Amino acid sequence: LDPGLRTGVKVAVVDSTGKFIENTTIYPHPPFNKEAESARELLKLAEKHNIELMAIGNGTAGRETDAFVGKIMKLKPEIKLTKVMVSEAGASVYSASEAGTEEFPDLDVTVRGAISIARRLQDPLAELVKIEPKAIGVGQYQHDVSQVRLGKTLGAVVEDCVNAVGVDANTASAHLLSYVSGLSFAQAKNIVRYRDENGAFKSRGDFLKIPRFGEKTFEQAAGFLRIRNGENPLDASAVHPESYEVAEKIARKAGRPIGSLIGDSTLLRSLNPKEFTDEKFGLPTVTDIIKELDKPGRDPRPEFKTASFADGITEMADLKPGMILEGVVTNVANFGAFVDIGVHQDGLVHISALSEKFVKDPREVVKVGQIVKVKVLEVDMARKRISLTMRLGDD
Asked: Which residues have C-beta within 8 Å of that of residue 351, sequence separation ≥ 6?
């Protein structure tokens, strides 16, 4: 949901692979106040497409839309919806960009923005690579450095991330796939086209049916392309198809199916890797395979959590000094951290208020996306400034 007041709330439905299905616009807020009609429309879409998750943009009318969806969830608990506020930084840039136009040439700019917000919740990396770093607004001095160098550095970091954790072949965008070792942008687009026409990939072998995806490309890229819940449990891991025979040998020795071996640390750590080496697979390769079976597709991210903003606090005027609220860190600078507490204006936790201890660098204490508890110190309505502290004992 891309919230708005006068222009309405743009609603876009995407499936589990991020493919766009349907869109509409509802008008639950002033000046229209069509709350009942909007609720019916949203529930109809939720039931029709078995919606599980609603991503709500955190810009104008974000809190009002969040409260509106909350009411619907209370009225219809049987639909089992979950709502999450999502940063919409750069979504409007994407909707008017070449990437947005190329992906959805027939859709209105506002609908593209709503699709981007939905996909950010599914797979943030896949969506954010489509936006120039300067439009995301993270960090300090980012507009003062060479934009070319900034772009190159971002490219290198994304490439490292993608090849370290792999990409889900059934949800990744062409932009994200193009960062996979061995894939060009044209090949990445072919993967997405094949997926849209034939449905989700069932096994890594399906990649060879894609136009211009030959044996050489398969050899380079297959280990980084993951297929979750596919025909072979190894397809969701970093084990390359060429090394499956080692994993199968381990399974035979253990007398168990491969699926039950994955994640069984006790058994895997009791194995002697030397027993499975041969001319083709040396000790380092076998050791890596056993490590990967122990923790398949190691995702370094912690469990997904969301901040719960306080009810009834939607604008600066609702804030009072002394209130303790939950918020999300949106930016970290040398002088402190900015925190979204759900009032359309981020508050600042000064470096001196980040911890009871002396803090040399705020990045040692907080990071973007972290959920924190803060206390309101001061609200300056005239200058639109909110002063916060993470030292909850402060007055």
From this structure: 334, 335, 336, 359, 362
CATH number of the domain at 237-294, please? Answer: 1.10.150.310
Q: At residue 12, what are phi and psi to the nearest 5 degrees? A: -130, 135
Cα 32 from Cα 157, distance rounded (Å): 45
The DSSP annotation for 160-229 comes to: HHHHHH-EETTT--HHHHTTSTT--HHHHHHHHHHHHHH-S--SGGGGGGSTT--HHHHHHHGGGEE-TT
User: pLDDT by residue (tens digit) across 157-204?
Assistant: 888 888 888 899 998 889 899 999 899 999 999 999 999 999 999 999
End-to-end CA, the chain: 38
Reported pTM:
0.71
- What is the C-alpha separation between 106 and 213, in angstroms, rounded? 29
Q: What is the pLDDT confidence band of residue 297, given thresholds at 50, 70 and 90?
A: low
Report the pLDDT averaged over residues 226-252: 93
Distance CA(108)–CA(102), nearest Å, equals: 12
**Read out DSSP for 260-299?**
HHTT-HHHHHTS-GGGG--SSS-HHHHHHHHHHHHSTT--
Write the DSSP symbol of residue 339.
E
- The CATH number assigned to the domain with range 9-122 reads 3.30.420.140
Q: How far apart are CA 280 and CA 10, in angstroms?
A: 55
- Tokens read off for 145: 């450095």
Same fold, 140-231 and 316-389: no
